[in-house]
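Onboarding guide, step 5: your first structure request.
Type a short instruction followed by the sequence, for example:

Predict the 3D structure of this protein.
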Amino acid sequence: MGLGKNKITGETKIPRHIAIIMDGNGRWAKRRFMPRSYGHKQGMERMIGLMERAFALGVDYITVYALSTENLKRPQEELEGLFNLFRNHFKEYMARICARGVRLRAVGDVSLLPDDVQRILRQSEEDTAHFEGKGINVAVAYGSRNEIVHAVNAAVEKGEKVTEESFSRLLYTADSPDPDLIIRTGKEVRLSNFLLYQAAYAELYFTDKMFPDFSDKELDKAIVEFSRRTRRFGKTDEQIEKKK
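The system replies with structure tokens like these:
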């Protein structure tokens, strides 16, 4: 497929909410005989670049899978490297993005993180709480099954039956629409406990690119592919055409 076919044009349908599983940072670094922490640093820089590109294209919400609950079982040295990224770079990087009027939310069981990292995330949330219409969800210490169990327990405590709509409001992502497009880098073809409930009708896009190599052009390519797809939401082609 020629490169020109992957360019964003005025006819391209831009997803309102993109979620990204940022996989492959450690493997990318290993191939370069560098420590995994170097890959995570490059991944954070690429994450910021992609956010800037996505918002410039008209995306309203971005959710990034930064650290899963399963990742917390990794060697302590690697975890400290990840936590140091939050300590040393997160606030500075996010200030660049949130200056656009973007609200930041940390979604996950943040209580599992070191106290100082929790404070950094909470402060970023407070600093951007007044923004509306655009948002970043940083999924950290996040697991979708844990999220669903948390929501179920919240419903039980209220003693109320739930609908799909009311249950969605009990999830960590309550303030965001469901993702339209989920991108996973790094060759793996699975969701890995990410947004399982919210992903019911998301379009999925998988690429062999390791996350630090997932350029703005690669993002454009994913969005163009999304634009080509017909989202039926259970309806027939005829029903979709009639609605146009």
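Each response can be followed by summary notes, for example: Residues 17-229 form a domain with the Undecaprenyl pyrophosphate synthetase fold (CATH 3.40.1180.10).
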